[in-house]
Amino acid sequence: MAYSSHLQSKVLEGTRGLVFKYPLDKGNHSYSRDGFRRSGSSQRRCWDRQRASVFLGTANRTRKNYSSIKHINAATDASVAYRRDYDAGKGKRVTAETIVSDEGDRVIRIESDIPGKLLLHWGLEGNEGEGWRLPGKEVWPEGTVEYKRRALQTRFGDGGVEIRLRNDDPARYLNFVVKDTASGEWYDINGSNFHVPISLVDDESKMSVGSGSADEMVQQNQKKVLLREEDIPSIPQDLSGVWSYMKWEASGCPNRSQEEADREYQNAIREIAMFLRQGCSLNDLQKVAEDGVERYKAFAREQEMMWTQQPMPAAEAQDGGDVDVDQDVVNFRAYLMWEQAGKPDGADFGQAARAEIVQLLGEGKTMEDIRHDMNMAGAEDTQHVREEAQRDDVVETPKEKQVDEVQYTVGEGIGIRYRNPLDLIHRSGAPRLSEVHKKTPKPLQPLWKMAREDEDCIWHRVYSLGSKSEMLVSVWKEGDEHPYKVVLTTDNPSELVMHWGVRKGGRSWKKPDVALLSGDSDLVPDGIAAETPFKSCSDEECHIEIGGSIVPLQRVELSVPGNAKVSAISFVLRSDDGSRWWKDGGSDFLAPLLAKDASKSVDEVGEVDELSQTIIDCEVKSGAWTLMHRFNKASDLLEDIVQGRFEPADKAMATIFVWLRYSAIRQLTWQRNYNTQPRILGAAQERLTHKISDVYSSLQGQAKEFARLCLTTVGRGGNAQAVRDEILNIMHRNKVKEVKGTWMEEFHQKLHNNTTPDDVGICEAYIAFLKTDGDIGAYWGTLSDHGITRERLESFDRPIVTLPEFMGDKKENLIRDFENYLGILKATHSGADLQASASAASDFVPGSAKSYLGFVLGQQNSSNVLSLMEAAVECRTEINGMLGDHREIMYLDLALENIVRAAAERGAGAAGSSAASLMAPLLQNLALSLENNEEICYCLKAWQDLDDEVKHGGYPSKDQALRGMAVIERIRRALADASDTMVNTLQDISSLLGNAFGCEEWSVQLFAEEVVRGGPAFAVSLVLSSIEQNLRSAAEMGAWQVISPVEKTTGKLLMVPDLHVVADEVYKEPTILLASRVTGEEEVPLGVVGILSGDAPDVLSHLSVRCRNMKALFGACHEAEPLETLEELNEKYITITTNAAGAVSWEEVDSSAVASSESARDDAKTKKKLSVAKPTWCKKWSIGIDSFENGVVGAKSKNLASLRGKLPEWISLPSSIALPFGSFEAAMSSSINSDIASQLEKSVKDARNGDTKALSTCRELIMGMEIPEEVQKDLAQTMKSNGISAPKDSDAWYQAFRALKAVWASKYNERAFTSTKRVGLDFDDVTMAVLVQKVVQAKYAFVIHTTNPMTGDEDEIYCELVKGMGESIVSGTVPGSALAFTAKKNDLENPKIVLYPSKSQGMFVREESLIFRSDSNGEDLEGYAGAGLYDSVTTAVMTQELVDYSSDQILTDPEFAKDIMSRVCKTGAAIEKSLKSPQDVEGVIDPDNVITVVQTRPQM
Fold first, then answer.
1. How is residue 455 annotated by DSSP?
2. Residue 758 has pLDDT above 60, yes or no
3. 1070 pLDDT band (50/70/90 cuts)?
4. I need a surface site. Which of 40, 397, 707, 1470 has the fewest CB within 10 A?
């Protein structure tokens, strides 16, 4: 086996089951018939040679003893060659021990203190690749029996089990598991067999890791021999990660290329392997990793001393003279060992390397074998050695590179530990700003309010002056002679002077004319400015009292004559003694003299809030403006947000984010009329990013989320002076002359003058140019990737117009220097760069995260995307609680998020159904990024609770796939909600600012969408698209995927070959497009109300987002037949209907159906008009169930009464009373409601005449009506006589009457109005009785259709069940599917699930309550679905709460579920039999699993 491939296998053995300890795992494992653990999903019978590994540094756990190899010192126990202690929990253990006798025989002893009758189930394994076998009977312990020719079984005696093997037996390993025959439990290592090397070393090589002086350690190891690679234990992947991280820390966290990071990770693995071969145990190395980088340095020195100072091993002393050892191989191996030890200065590994090679020769390998193995192990290292030898003065002849395309795969995970996803919920963010900073009145607030509301004030702005003081600048319209007056008012306590000049059309400061000077103003001698002192303001408006004290204000007023030709007043402030100066974040203050308020220049995007106007003024009206000015102003505004000046905080933070992102994507100037030195820009960046970090900890909810996003737009700054200095150093080191007209000098001048984030892209482009031996295409291609054009290069104040020149003799040095320089640039400008972020955060990263971070740093380009994603997400999880403590941790978090997204984009598309393995880490990644993440956490839990065949893209059964599809539907809906929330928050703000800034149209239109697509939700949507089709097929679900749901839409169907081709069309009538090709990037053409296609883009594609925003139907069909049927309807008018389960149906309609978007009016003309008898009032306010009769109450009440005595005893009916037909009209006709009655009559008439807004007025009037006193008395009596507790006090009666009036008012809702009009009914002819019941506390609620409504099968019952109240099914307010199941009426004991629940929420009433149910006279009217149009209302508050179906007994306990579903089906059958017609039944199941039917009506 090659050196590197063997080590890699050692690491991979530790990746498939990363755990926290090395315990025995009890019970519930699937074993093959031979009794050994089945390996993987293939169910092959094999010995599982995977070895469990140890998890390092995880917080909130107690470290368990790792079963490390214990090499016993020969002086204390000369015969023990190997021992492992396995912790069984609760103080119990299993010990495996190998003893070598003087004759070389090996005795394997297995002991355990686990109580019970134990059985050892075992076999042997030969050399690598030789498989397992059973030994001859001569070595069987007494009582051993053969188990199906696959294994041996030996009972434990008092001393355990002892197995003796002869010295010539080729067996290398003993594999076993332990069974307690009394309980039937199997014991193994987390699903793996115990796997014990029978002989690691000979008896002369027993070792121990000393702890004495260096001389003692050398003396102890006089006879030390390296272990063979195949005999060292598995290297845990997390140990590799943390070791790599420590090596990086030990070298000072240098900037590294990805190739260097990958090589360093492999070096860490080799170094660990070398320490293990030198006799260190995993426990030793684990302790080093826990103790940190300083312990690592000391440990490496100790090992170096032991192995570089020891004499030649005995094998070489005896045979070395006769052994032909290739010195080149010794040198090469010594170099690798030096690298693995951390490249210690002056260390010589020559003797240790020679000893290793001699030992390998003694084992039978040839020099050619060793050379071949080492070359494979160190391919990269060989190149590195060559580079070290060649140095700068040797130039290789360039060779054309053959670059193979990387094939990305999902691969194996790192075996992350289980976390309860609900623990990730951000249940309590920071307190609201109003709680953190008790908002105190601001002295200038009344003056600001007056200026804002006064039409004569044409411009106003408040500026912060620090120390909590402010200045209000306002411009007022005056008379003809002096058309403008500029007023400055401040509460600053210092004596101030206004130092000012004027602008006359341009941006430069001009000396004011004498005519502008007031009596107190003077021109500055020999200057271009005037100065005017502030005076105490005695005007009435300046009399501001706060906290009982008058706040002194001071003011300056300047009148501007009409002939002055002044466009603006520019100014700064100074203290009277000149010791302090105030500016607007590095720029002059400005008072523009405009003909109208600046806010009116953006009327098309609506009213401009104060924060947005402040930002617009800075960007549009400032003469000198750079990144430095922008960042300083942003810092000031963030402080204002924290102080409560701009509210609400989430909108204010979104505004700051939009502003900074427009800057980051180059839509705003980075430099205008001002040169910023790098150190000044760096200081502004550092100030802003620290302010963002501070603000983050003060916010909650979406505002906190936007604060974090702000960091993605700004580099961390800091030592930006190095940007200016290092480019010159590079030129000097490489003897590149500062010659004008060369690329290097132009780049140098650009950096010297003004560094910007463009410099990162320019530097990367030059590196690409160098690495491709001067390929100018690589240069321009890299610039293009960064959005940098030739025009942009030429637009700099110090332009770059010359192409780079390839200097072959300096290539390697320039690459090295510019890669280092790129790190400096990224540290300044690229905040979320992983390398820069990890380096900056190294002092703050907790130990529990270092192993994951080390893995990510070394594996960024790994083709195994799953392990990379898991490590990045786990690192994010470990540091999540520290985000508000350190800016650098926030940057690291953003960088890791980018790693996850990039990995998903690389792997999801090509992975197919196996991309399902990526779903869990991607959902966890999204949960960490969202502040309002509760629903995503529930989605993650639901996904984790699915079967492995679904989670890992296997071959699920139909039932498994159905459950998976329910979870996918919930995830899809959560993604859409998160996307819509972000888009709705950002779109108006980005439109307002973008249009005011004059940004490119594309950047404004796509702003919100691009933020969503660049976020973590988009990666989840990619995986959904990859796995859904296979699950749909396995679940035998319908053909349609409704991406943008619309319940019903009507239009003309038109076939188009490609949606992109018709994107700019304008359709003059409602149109439904059937597109052969859809990519997801297209626009929705005007006039289109629906899009159907065989393509299914992801839910967050541009087209998907647009359709949802426009309320347009978007459905993707996964089968050919429905599409072919639709093609036959080309250019015909159709109505398409969808339902919550994702079914799509259509019918051809007449063209008149699309005359308007509503289509209801014309549709109603084609239907037969219906009529309904309007019942009269029975003169009773309330009646008991005995009086539920025709003409008195509706079908709900009557049917409930008729069920009494006809149902099985296990079905309950609730106590019920009713307010009969006419009660509402009688109450409204009372004299106390006369005014409301007349207004209601008018509003009803208006509604009949087409004013649908009048319906809202009708409802408001009813909610304001008075309930006659006699109603309360009558209700109380009727309730008491029918077993219902009446409301206890006036508050309870108020809630009862509120619910009653709400039911009456629902007669006038828009849906009911439209429905009655469509069938020709007068909506006011519908009369409302009200059924009153006590609410049953619902564990579940159900709806039964005794004839299957999907198929029309009268012999099959169809049921839906949800957690909580039934309103989440019938109200339509809770999206998603219920648990749906059917049963044949002749087989009600065996219901079948057809749909699993995907609803995110349930509806609950947590307090004792009454419910008032609508019961209209249209309930049973043929052709009119009166049911569900009107409301049912509880007296107590009904809340919507997130629900977890995955852990509910209805899904986790098959027997319980079967019993519940069967009883529900039997309930429907019993009611249908009693009422002699198909029924729609509603009921609940209480916490004791008792079924109560609350209402039933004939099935329509």
1. T
2. yes
3. very high
4. 397
Torsion of CA 1452, 1454, 1457, 1459, to 10 degrees: -150
- How many degrees, rounded to 5, is the angle at CA 675 between CA 673 and CA 676? 135
| Cα(431)–Cα(418) distance, integer angstroms | 30
- Give the C-alpha distances (Å, rounded to integers) separating 645 from 464, 651, 656, 1122: 11, 12, 14, 58
Residue of 119, 172, 176, 170 lying closest to 150 (CA atoms): 176
**Residue 523, φ and ψ in degrees, nearest 5:** -75, 140
Given a cut of 70, is residue 27 above it in pLDDT?
no
Task: Give the type of residue at 1078.
Answer: V
pTM over 0.70: no
Residue 503 bridge partners (DSSP): 568
**Residue written as token pair 């990363």:** 18
Q: Which of the two residues, 642 and 1267, has the higher pLDDT score?
A: 1267
CA distance 1140 to 1046: 10
Residue 599: which pLDDT band, with cuts at 50, 70 and 90?
very low
pLDDT-wise least confident of 436-445, 512-521, 592-601, 1049-1058? 592-601
Would you say the C-alpha torsion 917, 920, 926, 929 has a positive or negative sign? negative
Considering the candidates 195, 748, 1102, 1345, report the single residue annotated as catalytic.
1102
Give, for 1134, the enclosing helix (H) or strand (E): strand 1133-1138
1060 is catalytic: no
What are the E-state strand segments in 956-1097? 1040-1044, 1048-1056, 1066-1075, 1086-1093
Q: Tokens at residue 1023, please? A: 């995986």
Question: Residue 935 — φ and ψ, nearest 5°?
Answer: -65, -40
- pLDDT score of 26: 35
Q: Which residue has the tokens 């044949």?
A: 1384
CA atoms within 13 A on the CB side of 950: 26
Give the CA distances from residue 1014 to residues 6, 847, 920, 936, 1021, in Å, rounded to whole numbers and listed in that order: 40, 30, 19, 18, 12
Q: Per-residue confidence at 1364, pLDDT binned at 50, 70, 90?
A: very high
1123 CA to centre of own chain: 35
Which three-class secondary structure state does DSSP give residue 1141? Answer: coil
Query: In a 3-state reduction of DSSP, which class is residue 1329?
Result: strand
Q: What is the DSSP string of 466-526?
A: ETTEEEEEEEEE--SSS-EEEEEEE--SS-EEEEEEEESSSSS-BPPPGGG--TT-EEPTT
Reference 943, options 1369, 1453, 1444, 1455; nearest CA is 1444
* Nearest Cα residue to 585 out of 630, 619, 543: 630
- Please name every residue paired with 1442 in a beta bridge, in sequence order, or none if there are none: 1401
Alpha helices, DSSP H, located in 168-233: 214-220
DSSP letter assigned to residue 917: G
- pLDDT tens sequence across 437-492: 445 678 888 888 888 777 788 878 888 787 778 899 998 888 777 788 899 999 98
CA–CA separation, 924 vs 909, rounded Å? 20
The answer to whether the peptide bond before residue 648 is cis (omega within 30 degrees of 0) is yes
> φ, ψ for residue 1423 (rounded to 5)?
85, 0
Q: In which element (H, E) is residue 600 found?
A: none
Residue 315's alpha-carbon distances to 209, 1149, 1176, 1377, 1421, in angstroms, are 21, 95, 114, 74, 102
DSSP 1192-1233: TS-HHHHHHHHTTTTS-TTEE---EEEEPTTHHHHHHTSGGG
Query: Measured in whole angstroms, how far is the alpha carbon of residue 1208 from the centre of its chain?
Result: 50
Integer Cα distance of 613 and 286 in angstroms: 58
Are 693 and 886 in contact, with CB atoms under 8 Å apart? yes
Pick from 383-392, 908-917, 1096-1105: least confident:
383-392
